[in-house]
Amino acid sequence: MTEGDNFEGNFCSTCLLIRPVRSKHCRYCDKCVRRFDHHCIWINKCIGSENHRLFISYLILLQVSAFVVITGCILYINDFCGGISFHNLACQPWVSYTLIMSINLFFWLSLLSFMQFYGIAQGLTANERINAHRYKHLNSGTFARNIFSQGCFQIYTIFL
Ligand SMILES: [Zn+2]
Ligand SMILES: [Zn+2]
């Protein structure tokens, strides 16, 4: 019945349970995840209701770490290579390589953090934002709107 075309329930035929609203079955972890956000390929784990705050804290800490490394590399090149210039990047190739990789990392982490906080402000998970057209409870008019959202000013509640 659940694998038939005309069944519109939220029963997971793999886990054999009724999925709560906002949950999703992850094909990589092969289990249902409550308030599914996304499957993170970098930590090879699903981000859901139980670890979303930790994931955001992890992102922020990684950004701080990347910023510390960038500052350290710039200070090193400034002190040991006679100032910051494009020519002085060749003075210490490994430090320059670390600097470029850290700037790259910082950029992508900033983008990821921005998307996470944008999702929090909207009251939508990444999965709901991408697949809003699939969920009936999100489609009330032109824009996807989360009926569970408490408004963007409740953003501080993620830290509680
Ligand atoms: Zn499942
Ligand atoms: Zn997963």
Automatic annotation (TrEMBL):
The chain crosses the membrane at residues 55-77, 97-121. Residues 7-132 form the Palmitoyltransferase DHHC domain. Its main location: membrane. GO terms for molecular function: protein-cysteine S-palmitoyltransferase activity. GO terms for cellular component: endoplasmic reticulum; Golgi apparatus; membrane. InterPro entries: Palmitoyltrfase_DHHC, PFA4/ZDH16/20/ERF2-like. It is a multi-pass membrane protein. Its EC number is 2.3.1.225. Keywords: Acyltransferase, Membrane, Transferase, Transmembrane, Transmembrane helix. It is found in: Membrane. It comes from the Eukaryota. GO terms for biological process: protein targeting to membrane. The keyword Transferase applies. The keyword 4Fe-4S does not apply. It holds the Pfam family DHHC. PROSITE patterns: DHHC. It catalyses: L-cysteinyl-[protein] + hexadecanoyl-CoA = S-hexadecanoyl-L-cysteinyl-[protein] + CoA. Belongs to the DHHC palmitoyltransferase family. The DHHC domain is required for palmitoyltransferase activity. PANTHER family: ZINC FINGER DHHC DOMAIN CONTAINING PROTEIN. This is Palmitoyltransferase. The lineage of its organism: Eukaryota, Metazoa, Ecdysozoa, Nematoda, Chromadorea.
